[in-house]
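Hi there,

I know you've been waiting on this one. I reran it after we fixed the sequence typo, so this is the corrected version. Both the input and the resulting structure follow.
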Amino acid sequence: PEKAGISSEQVLKFVQSLENRNLSTHNVILARGEDVFFEHYWPPFDKSFGHRMYSVSKSMVALALGLLLGEGRLRLTDHIVDFFPEALPAAPDPRLLRMTIEGMLRMTTCYRRTTYREGVDRDWAATFFRGDCTHEPGTLFHYDTSCTQVLGALCQRVSGQGLLELLEERIFHPIGATDPKRWLTDPSGVPQGGTGLIMSLRDLGKTAQLVMDGGRGLLPESFLRSATAKQVDTTVQGNPEERFGYGWQYWRTRRGWAMYGMGGQLAVACPAEGLLLCTIADTRLDPYGVQRIYDAFFEEIVAA
């Protein structure tokens, strides 16, 4: 830790802070630049264990979309309905027709909630085009996992590759993130873009570091800058850390940005300090569990 400018005592305080908050933490990585200065896996987990990332999957879908936007195969101003004509009802709501890819990225859709129902709907992406619109797109932030489901399906249609295949070929393998991965699918066989990626913590860390580094030529730096910047206001969110704004499938925090998955799947980046925290946890029984992880990191590591 001293090499990274953090004392061993501060790292110990951080770990004790997690324990004192009664958090069910499985794995933790702390890094500064390329230097991983703390890495721990509580049994029975190990370095290569594949965890379900939940909504961290959304940030990975954004990276796949960034590849296609960078190549000019998509534009932010494209209307999403143009890529799924077979899913449209006979008389689609005009508000749905105005929904753009950029609006999907920043979750300012024309819906107040996710449109698909697990255990009921077969084709989750198709439900997005047959929901009941509640407001004009581009005006309000509502956390909507169905829009990421559609974006993942869009990446497959435009690239001609599976979503995971595209990411492994263009991003994961080039950076050495080669632990086994899977992507859970909906009943129709389309990857669960908003929740379904299974990967190891250390591969999450390598990917988050790539984003912090501006893409290293693998991804457009301008896209990553916009994706991790504040694109929409989120001050009505419940947890304090979720009130700093939302980018393009990335959350803003008090000191940077985060990939954030339910229960404590996290990659928390502080670009100014070059610090990165990655965790796997299960805090779902505590509505403020993820916030407690944020607080421990900012109070014990970033403040040092």
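Quick highlight: The first strand starts at residue 25 and ends at 32.

Best,
R. S.
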